[in-house]
Structure formats: C-alpha cells, structure tokens
Amino acid sequence: MRAIFALPILAILSSVYASAGDRAHDFQRCTFMCDNRECKNHSPTPLPLALRITKWTCLDNCKYNCMHEITINLTAAGKRPLQYYGKWPFIRVAGMQEPCSVLFSLFNLWVHFQGYSRIQKMIPRIHPLKTYYLVWSVASMNTWIWSAVFHTRDTPLTEKFDYFSAAFTILTALYFTAIRFFHLYTPSARALPAPVRIMAFRAWTTICVVTFIGHILYLSLPPRFDYRYNIIFNLVIGLSHNALWLLYSLPESMSLLTRFPNRLRTYCPRRLANKAAVLVTLTTAATAFELFDFPPWRKVIDAHALWHLVTAPIACAWYHFLILDASDPSWKEIR
Ligand SMILES: *[C@@H]1O[C@H](CO)[C@@H](O)[C@H](O)[C@H]1NC(C)=O
C-alpha cells in the first residue's frame, strides 16, 4: 500500500511537459511535414481500429512515428535516446503507450482485488477497522484502474484522474492509520474518554476531507497544474503514514504509543513489529529505485514499469500484515 505513495510522485516527475526530444528541431520538422502530408490532405488514411479506440489522432500518430524514426537515427549514431513530453520512446501495443506499465498496473489491481476478498473473509465483521480497510482497498483498486488508463493514453484528463485517485488513496491510508494508532474508532478502546475520542475523530475526519477537497480544487483551477506542489503533497502524506508505521515497529523499550487496544504501551508481538519495519523499508527502497531513470530496455521496460511491478508483491505482503495485525487477541476484547 505504501507502495502506492511513490506512484504520483514519480508519475509527476516524468510528466514535466516539454522534454529535449520534442523540443529538438528535427522532431518538429518531421512532425510538421508528416502532419501536412498525412493529416491535412483531403483524404487522410484512417488509423487502425485499436488506435482510434485509444483516441490517437493523426497528429499524435505522426509524433509517434517521428519519435521512433529519430530514436533509430540516434541509436545508429551511437547516441542515447531522448525523452518526448516527459516520457521515453516506448513501442506501443494495441494503442497502449506504455504497455508494460499498463500490464503491471493491472497486476496491482488484481493483487488489491485479492486483498479485498481476504480482508472480507479473514477479518471478523465486528472488527472496528474492517470497513476502513475495505474502503482503502477499493480506493487502491480505483487508483490502479486509472493508472492503467493513464499509461494507455497520457492526456491532461487521464493524468488528473490518475493523480487525484492516487492522492485519495494515500490520504485514506493516512486517515485510517491515525484512527488505528490513536484508537479513534468505534467501539473504542479505553485509551481516550468517549467525548474526547469523538471530538478527535470528527476533527481528524474534517481535516482529511477539507484537505482532499482543497487539494483537488487547487490543482483543477487555473492558471496551471502545479506539479511541484503535487509532489510535495504526496510526499508529506506518504511519509507521515510511513512514520506512523515506523513508530509501530519500535522496540518495546522505546515505544511511544499504545499499539493495541487496552494493552500496555510496550505490547506489540515482535513478528508484527518486524514485518511492519521490513515493509516500510522495502517501500522506501522501491521508491528510491524508481528515481534512477534510464531509457527503456528494448523500448519496452523502464524504471517506472519495474517499479509498478515491485509494488504488487509489497501490496500483497501488506494485506497479509494488516490481517495479522487485526487478528491480535487484544481486538477481541473491545465491543
Ligand atoms: C533519419 O535518418 C535518415 C537517413 O539518414 C534520414 O533520411 C531521415 O530524415 C532521418 N530522420 C529524421 C526524422 O531526422
């Protein structure tokens, strides 16, 4: 799940609009000529069905062909490929711009789908966090659907759906994590007196809702999409979430918060604490790995696609962990 955090950050880094490739003179000349020759004549050749379904225009197709022609020329001259509109040149498949990223996004979608049914089956109905986990799981599925769409065709609209879904998922994760750690759920642990708990719950829910609405409004309104702010927003939310789970992993003697309802501050089964620590570390490592951007191998697999590939097993392990955490005997004592 934390795996998702890095997604918007990195997708954004690679979406800074103009790149060396599309600014280059030969690319602009090639596109201009192709556009005049193929698109602006009286009977333009219709594009294949797969391209029309995925909304390729004649001009998009010119850009695609020019990009590959120039890349072949550069490679022949022993030069490194360039990026176009923030993306490496990929070979499209059935109209999909980045087929591997699409495939791996669908792989993540499947993992979350499986995770949803496991939570549904393994966490008892009366568990106070079950509904939160299910909502987060649905939010994650929605995010991976939009990630697949965005990697199929990168447009300002699919980009927004991808980023907003991801922001929603990250915020949902932080929301339920705080509710879990500060025992704000109902029925509640005795950690806080009821009125304080209810007030804290309402305040926290309001903060999250207002934050999300403000985030969407700020990014949707003119003058422009603020990529920098978006990266920082996702980083702050994602890192806060990771920090909370790191507190969970602290050894007994250093424990800062009561991790399980109606238990001592020192109580946390070691294997759970270790698992959380490993997963937080893996997620961070995966994110760092994503930052090493390299031209796609055989014009098929790049760092971003590989990163989507590794988030899937991490998410799978994360569901396993959430279920273990929810199965601790301490949860059975609250009603
Ligand atoms: C690629 O190289 C060929 C052969 O040198 C040349 O004719 C063609 O114009 C080049 N393509 C582009 C887009 O510059």
From TrEMBL:
List the GO cellular component terms: endoplasmic reticulum membrane
Signal sequence residues: 1-18
Q: Which domain of life is it from?
A: Eukaryota
A Pfam family matched in the record:
Per1
Which UniProt keywords are present, listed alphabetically? Endoplasmic reticulum, GPI-anchor biosynthesis, Membrane, Signal, Transmembrane, Transmembrane helix
Q: How does the protein's chain sit in the membrane according to the entry?
A: Multi-pass membrane protein
Record's function text:
Involved in the lipid remodeling steps of GPI-anchor maturation.
Q: Which PANTHER family match?
A: PER1-RELATED, POST-GPI ATTACHMENT TO PROTEINS FACTOR 3
Protein name as annotated: Post-GPI attachment to proteins factor 3
Q: Which organism is it from?
A: Lentinula aff. detonsa
